[in-house]
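Possible race condition, two jobs.
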Amino acid sequence: MAAFPFTIKATDGAARTGVLSTPRGEIRTPAFMPVGTAGTVKALTVDQVAQTGADILLGNTYHLMLRPTAERVARLGGLHKFMRWERPILTDSGGFQVMSLSKISKVTEEAVTFQSHLDGSRHALSPERSIEIQADLLGSDIVMQLDELVAWPAEETVAAEALRRSARWGARCKAAFGERETQALFGIQQGSTVEHLRRESAERLVEIGFDGYAIGGLAVGEGHQAMCEVLDYAPAMLPADRPRYLMGVGKPIDLVEAVARGVDMFDCVLPTRSGRHGQAWTWDGPINLKNARFAEDEAPLDPDSACPASSAYSKAYLHHLVKAQEILGQVLLSWHNLAFFQALMGEMRAAIAEGRLDAFRRAFAARQGASG
């Protein structure tokens, strides 16, 4: 019996739209989760994030365990209270950052040991410690198992070893997590871009039994085409009655193609990172507000958007803010981009419900592609 009911409202081909019901609120799927790495979605207040239509945020175990420490967040009432976000929070396990950010990391069967990228202090992250940080100290609603991520391209033997260790760690996470009514635990499929390894990983995870399943190990350099090829088979290997979460993806075209292949949940730093660097995502593709052609453009980014950042400010003003390196430029573009990503998810939910996702997908790709 899964912790959170997941109701699929409609399907269109492999795509699904539904609702994941949690004690802190409903998550409409397909869902995009803004990334709140260190207890904040960069440059935005939680009220602005909520206003974009986000049902759930992502928090980061690695960053929070190092600063301000998970124990301090717990003493201050947990992550929801600490950052003033009352809706659901999913936390990642910390594994990705340990592998990619730490100065030195070493993987053993017991744990990952690493040096902090902040001050060089030494830490160990075991499956049990990851669960303690996420579920007990931060108090997240959806907890991710600790997994071992392999870089791409990976030798098949290396990818196989990592998926098997990830499955063993998944079983330890499940044991440490126990039975909880107000929190859910997701397993993570690995296997790089090798179909039979993905199948083995899925079978091992299903045998353990999780509340939801993530597709990990993509968006690590393999490119859009290779990712889509994995998504042609990987989601269908996971239980149809539970949410499927594609970790760390991605560009709007990636989201549309992944939804068409049966994925329900996403997270990515792209909307806010792009916003901080002067890039706005639009229905006609990304635009760079640093470009001189916007210097006297009086049109807003999206006159039809309910987001003030999208509809109330001219591109000329945004161009000026970016060129002048004013903080407000970063705020407005991050806010606009998150609103666009949420609007995109809303359009896909509607298209699936009305049985027209394929037409939406073709039209969207044509408009995105037209911008180059």
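Job #2 (started ~2 s after job #1):
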Amino acid sequence: MEKWENNRAWFLILPVFVIVAFSAVVPLMTVVNYSVQDILGPGQRIFVGAEWFRDMLTNSRLHDALVKQLIFSGLVLLIEIPLGIGIALTMPQKGWTASACLVLLALPLLIPWNVIGTIWIIFTRPDIGLFGASINSLGIAFDHTANPLDAWVTVMLMEVWHWTPLVVLLAYAGLRSIPDAYYQAAKIDGASRWAVFRFIQLPKMRGVLTIAVLLRFMDSFLIYAEPFVLTGGGPGNATTFLSIYLVKLSTAMDLGPAAAFSIIYFLIVLLFCWLFYQALQAVGTGDKS
């Protein structure tokens, strides 16, 4: 009877399993089902096995989109992580100024993704946009709708402006969790500002920075709404990332290839997140030894 009483606690999490089954597992199984079949019409389908996976893995457009995605996500991490740490280090630690900074930093995170793209379309317009018109007034030809490099610069600036505050908030939380005793000991030892950062602040922020790297990589690797609204994947295919290419496949009713690509996409994200996590954990282990 006592054992049954203890096991009844599992009923409390049963609703969670039901919700996850309908929101994640069932759609995933549907995608897996589509990925091994050729959908000819309602009730008409042919089992093709791994054919769509072979087609996707040898698809040159997918390779091109993957390279663009890796470059984009790599640049996002290289810019946002150091920038976020630097801003967090300069923020006030106490008082109303600290609260004001936190509120202002959180504002971009509250704006819907499609609205972000619309804001930057207006902001970077070469004729009336504050940024675009200002750049062109300096004699520099700037048009993100016609020049691939300008499109990349615009998308990167938009992404950095939108999501660097998340890194700042996480890094700031990590800094505020460091006891004052560490700083007092460093002051007594005559440690430099760089030494304090290298041996106290950075190791103590390892946990939150691991979260920041994983979140920013996953989100940047899955980015869709902002660049789609801003550039539509253009000019040409200059900003056609994996998510945009996937949507183009699915809207063309190529359900089999789109489903196979979705699974490949999912596995790529899992692989890179695992690699990042292992690398960051290894760095942390090395610091402790």
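Strands lie at 37-41, 44-47.
Logs attached separately.
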